[in-house]
What does this fold into?
Amino acid sequence: MPEIIKTNLTNGNGVQKQRSTSFNEEENKISYESLQETSKYLTDRVKFTPKIGIICGSGMGGYWKAGSLADALEDKIEFPYEDIPHFPRSTVEGHVGKLVFGHLSGVPIVCMQGRFHYYEGYPLWKCAMPVRVMKLIGVDYLIATNAAGGLNPTYNIGDIMLVKDHINLMGFAGNNPLQGPNDDRFGIRFPPMNQAYDRQLMKDALQVAKDMGISDIVHEGVYTCLGGPNFETVAELKMLKMLGVDAVGMSTVHEVITARHCQMTVFTFSLITNCCVTDYDTYELPNHEEVMDVGKMRQGILKDFVKTVVLNISKKYVK
Ligand SMILES: O=P(O)(O)O[C@H]1O[C@H](CO)[C@@H](O)[C@H]1O
It folds into this structure.
């Protein structure tokens, strides 16, 4: 039996939260059957089947407030993560910690208000396990959003970067959500990743941006995920720039790998919440408050953008 320890965590505001973790997380890996229990708990309580799942990035999960995406959700059914069997807990400020089912412009969706990050102490497979739960519920299309630092010098704070590819740096170091025995019921042992981000959904989203008159703030770029929780050094950022990274964050890549493993179609975008500092004479310090403020500032545009992308997926692709 793995030894269980109690850990004190802070949510970024100095508020202490307690969570149990296991020393041997691999042994503790959640089985297909356990995830079926999780999905059954949810489907027993929700009378519609969402085909589209959304993961809200930092500061973007404030969608429950007036004028927000969650505000636009109808027939909402909310599940705090602590009530869902086998689900991890959110510990980061700006990540509410609820799974919300509802209709967006009449389209049934499920939305994660709060995701799990490696730096919270969860292994990558656990950070990404809600994606598998979504799959078991019936979700075929994943819209993963995140807050990220802009490395591309043409990006401004508040811009949107459609993710066309990623560099799995944590994977380079041997850390991957698919590590361990492969369960073929989810997907194959060696999934390809060269079509990770659906080209057609990206083209459609560019058209949505054009129709909304926001093409000037929308880009296509390459995202990378670092382990965090510290922001990057100048030397690290210079290296990432040389590698061809346009935006850097601490999430999403493991979710996308897990989603592609189980044949979900993926659309991802980053909200550029800060411009990465790549010289030693700039004294601005990146911080999580700014990240959340920009999320809030862009809430209205993101709501309209996501609503239209969802409607488009539903009309054009969902069977
Ligand atoms: O990727 P999301 O969850 O949007 O959050 C981003 O913002 C936080 C840093 O401010 C980090 O967690 C980073 O990954």
